[in-house]
Amino acid sequence: MVSMDKLVALSKRRGFIFPSSEIYGGLNGCWDYGPLGVELKRNIKAAWWDDMIAHHDETAAPDGAPSAFAMVGLDASILMNPRVWEASGHVGGFADPMVDCRETRARYRADQLVVFRVAFDGEAVDEPLFASPGEWGKATEDELIEPHKKRIGALAKAHPGKTMRIEAVDGALEDEALRGRTIAPGASEPGSLTAPRAFNLMFKTHVGALEDASSIAYLRPETAQGIFVNFKNVLDTARVRLPVGIGQIGKAFRNEINPRNFTFRSREFEQMEIEFFCRPAEAPDWYRYWRDRRYQWYVSLGIRSENLALREHEDSELAHYAAACADIEYRFPFGQSELEGIANRTDFDLKQHMAVSGKDLRYIDDLEPDPEKRRVLPYVIEPSAGADRATLAFLADAYAEDEVGGESRTVLRFHPRLAPIKVAVFPLVRKEGMPDAALTLYRRLRRRFNAFYDEKGAIGRRYRRQDEAGTPFCVTVDGETLSDGTVTVRDRDTCTQTRVSADRVAEYLAERVEGA
Ligand code: GAP
Description:
Bound molecules: glycyl-adenosine-5'-phosphate
Number of strands: 27
Oligomer: single chain
Radius of gyration: 27 Å
Low-confidence stretches: none
């Protein structure tokens, strides 16, 4: 697996992802997608939209689905009536516990700070305790020791010949006495951490000229609520019946206490969410269908299944309203973490919006003969994915280093549907009419594919540059082209070259890119 440092360096060097407003020192938790990154992310979002919504066939049950179903799209506004967030529970409860270090001024999420002690031959040293960023069981012992290497090294020296282990001290941040003995990362003395305080993650702003309590609005922390509040509008206008899914792609904002791991935890990010409305009795079957289908979606776009895991939540982990939840996790370079969540949210959201808005959001089944059963409050299955996390996972999974003709190369093995540039066109040399022929072909291909023209430098260097950008095909115009009208098409992954008639290159690529 590629290291995070290499991925960040490649993203910067090749124009995938830059720190936001970098010339001013950046803004923590915000990222900009460069020329290649924007194409990659757009292709991921387009693949999601096409596969989930636009190309969905509502007349037949797809493999594994309990029945046929409808899928439609939505694009709701980011700013919404603030009562939406009261009903959804975000005003009251969308908070993380936050801890500050009074000495270093660093801020941490309490659940992402491990407090531990060291023990020698099983005998614990209780003074001092150490706090390090990470999660117990996820971070390695070396990572947790790193911020306190000197002090722990000195303790090890004072216990020669003994085996050292570290032990988590649960609840230390909530306990004043234990906190007083804890050294924060980078701090010189124990006792600098504050008690955990709830911190609401929603960004607040004001709508209109007056900045008072009546004008408060929030940047949406998820796209889902835009779907719930439009449920009736969609039912009334799209002529759809249960079961029906409504999908949306859009920005979401969270004032994360500790944005980290590159784009993985950002303050501004994009979500790709489906709220799938079904009859309550059918919800368990639809939950399993969506969980498995969403997992397969990543595999179908080239993510290696050994790097994916489907983690079903324990009952103790479930939100109070959820009947089931699973995470699709990816083995990121920094550890296995959530890529997408799939939840059975029961009828919680629609019920909340009915109670707070006073509007009846029930589905009316006009084919139901029994008037008692005609109004149904659907259950909701929610597959909720992040476009930025998906981009990071596809980048990490595509990264490879290998050797071609005795020369090492970096290559991004993107699935052709996701590759930012589909085809590069080169004249072998800048003479004998080759550039003209190559430009003619490039202009023809460009109408259909994201294509790139390059005539500078040795042909081997040009191939390497495209390998590093993840371009699946390079087409070269050479001496034979001028005599027999054929070009070579080089495959990024196998490096084999196939001669194809220049007139047939567009179809050849279409079969491999669109049909791939
Ligand atoms: N409507 C449900 C919901 O928003 P979530 O687990 O909070 O659930 C869903 O978010 C997905 O959104 C995550 O699996 C992740 O891909 C993405 N996501 C959430 N917070 C993020 C952040 N701070 N930065 C980047 N992506 C994030």
